Amino acid sequence: MPEIQTMGSNQEEKVIEQPLIVNQHQQQEEAKEERDDGLPKSLIRCLYVGHFLSRWSARMWEFSVALYMINIWPNSLLLTALYGIVESGSIALFGPIIGEWVDRLTYVKVLQLWSFTQNLSFVVAGGNVIALLACSDLKSTHFMTFSLLVGVTYFSGAVGVLSTLAGTILIEREWVVVISEDQPPGVLTKLNSVIRRIDLACKLFAPVFSGFIISFISLTASAIALAVWNIVSVGLQYCLLISVYNGIPALSEKERRIASSTNDPEQSTADPELTKSLLSQDANDSVATENTGRGGIIERVLKLPCFNAWKVYLKQDVVLPGVALALLYFTVLSFGSLMTAALEWEGIPAYVIGIARGISATIGIAATFTYPILQSHILTLRTGLWSIWSQWSFLLLCVGSIWVKNGKASASMLMAGVAASRLGLWMFDLAVIQQMQDHVRESDRCVVGGVQNSLQSAMDLMGYVVGVIVPNPEEFWELILVSFSVVTCAGLLYTFHIWRVRKHLFHFEKLYGLFPCLMRSS
Question: Residue 248: which region, alpha, beta or left (left: phi > 0; alpha: psi -120 to 50)?
Answer without folding.
Answer: beta
